[in-house]
C-alpha cells in the first residue's frame, strides 16, 4: 500500500496529498489545473499528466473531486481509473457526492476487481491542513482495515459507518447540521446588530454556553469581519444540500428545517456569493432584514 495515485489536488486534496508524502507514501498526483500538481511536486510528490498515469502503478487511488459528474468521468470514463488500475487496487473516493453514485461506482469497480470505499470528510480546509479531518467510510470492513493507516495520516476521527454509500449518507447528515448552524449564527448576528448590542461580546458569551459550537469557535471572528474567503464554497454547500434533500426523498422522510436552509444556501448562490465561504450565508440573512 505504498504507491498512491491522487486525483483532485484542490483546496482539500493538496494538503491531504502533502501529508501522505510526509508520512512516507509514494504519491503521484493529477489535476486538470496544473497549480495543484505543482504544489504536490513542491511537497515531494510526483506529477502525472493524466488519470491513467496517476493510477497505473498505484496500490491505492484517492479521488478528491468536486461532485459526482467529475467522479464519474475520472473513475468510469475513457482513460479513467477503472480502465487503467491494476486488479485489487483500492479506490478511496473522498469527494462528497450522492450515495447512489458511490454504490454504482462500487458495483462497476467490482466487475474489474477494483475495491472501493466512499470516504467523505469533514473539518474543512483547516482540518485538511492540520491532518485533523473526520472521515466517514462506507464499504467492506476488510477494505476499511487495509486503508486505515492512510486514513490515520489524514484524520483524527475515522469511523467505518456501513456498506457502500453509507459514508456519503453520514456526510449528508453532517452538512445539514453545519448549514443549519451557520444560518442560526447569522440570525444571532443580525439580531445583536439590529438591537445595538455588541455582536462580538454577544457571540463570546454564546461560545461559552449551551449554544457553543465549533463553527462559533472557528468562524465568529471572520463572520463579524464579513471576511468570506473560502474555505468551503457556497457552490459546494449548495451541491451538498441537494444531496441532503435527494437522500431524504429516497429515504421517504421529510426534513423541513433542511429544506429551508437549502433555500437560504440557494439564495446565497443566486445573489452571487457562490465562490465565497459558506459563512457568507450571513449576507443572505442580513439582506432578508434589509441590512
Ligand atoms: P476544489 O474545487 O478546491 O478541488 C477539486 C479539484 O478537482 C480541483 O483542483 C479541480 O481542478 C479538480 N478536478 C476537477 N475535475 C477534474 C478532473 N476531471 N480530473 C482531475 N481533476 C479534476 O474542491 P475542494 O474544496 O477541495 O473539495 C473537494 C471535495 O471535498 C468536494 O466534494 C467537497 O464537497 C468536499 N469537501 C470540501 C471541504 C472544504 O472545506 N473545501 C470540506 C469537506 C469536504
TrEMBL record:
Signal peptide segment = none
Oxidoreductase recorded as keyword: yes
Coiled-coil ranges from the UniProt annotation = none
Quote any Pfam family the record assigns.
NAD_binding_11
User: Would you identify the family this protein belongs to, as annotated?
Assistant: Belongs to the HIBADH-related family.
Q: Which NCBIfam families match?
A: tartro_sem_red
Q: List the PANTHER family hit by this protein, alphabetically.
A: 3-HYDROXYISOBUTYRATE DEHYDROGENASE-LIKE 1, MITOCHONDRIAL-RELATED
Protein name (database record): 2-hydroxy-3-oxopropionate reductase
Record organism? Virgisporangium aliadipatigenens
Cite the source lineage: Bacteria, Bacillati, Actinomycetota, Actinomycetes, Micromonosporales
Q: Which gene encodes it?
A: garR
